[in-house]
Amino acid sequence: MKVLVIGGGGREHALAWKIKQSPRVDEVFVAPGNAGTALDAVNVSIGANDIAELVKFAKTENIGLTVVGPEAPLALGIVDAFESEKLRVFGPTQVAAQLESSKAFCKNLLRQADVPTADFQVFRDPDDAMRFIKGRFPGERDRCPVVVKADGLAAGKGVIVCKRRNDALEAIDRISRRKEFGAAGMQMLIEERLDGQEASVLAITDGRTILPLPAAQDHKPAFDGDTGPNTGGMGAYSPTPIVDDALMAWIEEHVLVPTVHTMKRNRKPFRGVLYAGLMLTPQAGPKVLEYNCRFGDPECQPLLMRLKSDIMDILEGTVDQTLDQIDTPQWDPRPGICVVMASQGYPGDYEKGRPITGIDAADALEDVKVFHAGTRLDGDTIVNDGGRVLGVTALGDTISKAKLNAYTAVQKIRWAGAWCRKDISDKALQYLADQAKVL
């Protein structure tokens, strides 16, 4: 079988790498891909949002399965376009993808499904939003524990966490007046800020059967200690000890199942990856921060490093609505950690085209795989071509060992302006240490 993976980031490199391991797969194409997918698959120079050309390519090449990586083509209806041409495709339809493409749609569905989430208000007019903040927090120096979100897709950057009233007013101005996030800010949400540890729970569903994957923890803020601006994710690890078997069962019962059932009842059946971003609040338990409708990036990288089963069983079972018939996926018991190496300036402006060295040396280490995100080939030289450039991913017998393996590999890679967080997975180590004290 020929498989087409759509996208050009670290998630798509990990998917192509894992799909290629299936004995049922003859050839893997990635559109548009990056320098890493050019090594592990065949790149196709078609943009991820060029739906007409992608459909044409899939028909011409007799592609047996297309896997959609990023959120933008899902929001544009790529699955609907492929299905209308009788092409097999993994991912939710356009109406189902609103769980990610519209935060207001998501929050209203959570309310309808009685899934725990933060209180919220939706605004179109910035003046109304500012009046709401000033009325709720009348003093200029008042604490203002809210989160202001652009409603639409903003590459993971349209969420602004606020501490003071002026922070919230500035966030409203950035989103709705200055249009920093473009059309994503046509509508905005203001919701209560939740405190606690964040966790990512990804599940695969064919609309009837739900297959939860091991929980992961992402690191969104740019700098160590969860400081700095939000990014698309600076690293992740899986499994996370903060989600044990009992909590996972609770999340499945109270979050995943009611969401899938409500989508089906609303005639918007969901098939694909249902990714719940959760806040584990100390007082009220888990609450859903948001849903994504695709594999998380960088959570995808350690998850797929740990997956021992044939990923095609999961992907085809979802498309064919036979997930209840596949064998239970097997996972490497060792934890996996992904450290994102980024370009200087990210998540702001950064320079491209800087040569990268040391990737082969890092890849040669045991239990390490370097997944490319923002890279391209300049002749025979790999250069940076994005903000998040590489996802250095490693396994280890313990979280500490996996971290050591990942950062040992990071130290072998160089380009001008390269940087990364140094504390990926430290939350897990601290949690385990705290639990040991309790015991």
What labels would you give this structure?
Dna Ligase, domain 1, 3 domains, Rossmann fold, D-amino Acid Aminotransferase, Chain A, domain 1, 439 residues, single chain, globular, 33% helix, alpha+beta, five-stranded parallel beta sheet, 15 helices, five-stranded antiparallel beta sheet
Describe this structure in words.
Its cofactor is Mn(2+); Mg(2+). Pathway: Purine metabolism; IMP biosynthesis via de novo pathway; N(1)-(5-phospho-D-ribosyl)glycinamide from 5-phospho-alpha-D-ribose 1-diphosphate: step 2/2. It is an enzyme of class 6 (ligase). By secondary structure, the chain is α+β, with helices and mostly antiparallel strands. It has three domains: 92 residues, 3-Layer(aba) Sandwich (Rossmann fold); 62 residues, ATP-grasp fold, A domain (Dna Ligase, domain 1, 2-Layer Sandwich), CATH 3.30.1490.20; 237 residues, ATP-grasp fold, B domain (D-amino Acid Aminotransferase, Chain A, domain 1, 2-Layer Sandwich). It is built from 15 helices and 22 strands. The strands form six sheets. Strands 3-2-1-4-5 form a five-stranded parallel sheet, with helices on both faces. It has a five-stranded antiparallel sheet with strand order 12-15-18-22-19. A four-stranded antiparallel sheet has the order 6-9-7-8, sandwiched between helices. It starts with a strand and ends with a helix.
